[in-house]
Amino acid sequence: HQLRHQLDAVLVGIGTVLADDPLLTARLGSAKCRQPVRVIADTRLRLPETSQLVHSLATAPLWVVCSNAADAAREARLREAGVTVIRVAERNGRVDLEAALTELGRRGIAGVLVEGGSSLLGSLLDAALVDFGHFFFAPKLLGDAQGVPMVSGRSVDRMADALPVYDLAVRRFGGDVLVSGRFRPELY
Fold first, then answer.
1. N or C: which end of the chain has fewer CB atoms below 10 A?
2. Which of the four pLDDT bands, split at 50, 70 and 90, describes residue 55?
3. What is the DSSP string of 4-41?
4. What is the CATH number of the domain that holds 7?
C-alpha cells in the first residue's frame, strides 16, 4: 500500500479485475492518504459496472484504457458512472501498451505501479517498457503445471536468454521478502 501511495497510478489488466474484483487503493490508515489513479488495461471494455472499482470512484479516480474498437455503448455507460475511458490503438489484438503509457504520461502520470496480472506484466517486459521492479515473495511454494505464472509473455527456457535485473536490493517485511531492481542498466 505504501508503493500505491507513492506513485501516480496503479495498473492492472482486466483479467485481474475479473478474477479478484480489487479496490486498488492505498490503505495506510489515514484519511489524508493520497490515492493513485487506478488504471485498467481492458481492450474490449469488459469492466463490470458492478465492480468495486466503479463503486469506489469517490475514493480514487478510475481510468480504463481500451482499444479504438471497443464498444461505444459500454464506453458511454462507464463514462456516465464517472470512469475516464482512454482509447488507444491495438497491437496484437490487445491495447498497445506503449501508446497507453504515452497517453498516461500526457495526462500527468509519471510513475506507474503494475500489480498484475501475469499477461500484462509479461507484455510490458517483452516490450521493454519496465524501468524498475519490486517483487514480493511469501515463504510459500506452489506447484501446478496449469497454474498462473508470475510473468507470462515470451517463452524463456535458457538462462542465457533470461531478462537480467540490475542493482538488486533485498528487504524483509515480516515473513515476506521484497526484491527490487532495474531492468534497464542505463537508468539511474
1. C
2. very high
3. HHHSSEEEEEHHHHHHH-------SS-TTPPPPEEEEE
4. 3.40.430.10
Cα Rg of the chain (Å, integer): 17
Query: How many domains does the chain contain in total?
Result: 1
Determine contact, residues 129/101, Cβ cutoff 8 Å: yes
pTM of the model: 0.90
Reference 14, options 52, 55, 47, 36; nearest CA is 47
Average pLDDT, integer, range 32-55: 94
Backbone phi, psi, residue 29, to 5°: 85, 5
- Report if residue 169 sits inside a domain: no
Q: How far is CA 129 from CA 37, 142, 153, in A?
A: 19, 28, 13
Neighbours of 167 (CB within 10 A): 11
pLDDT in tens, 135-153: 888 998 888 888 777 888 7
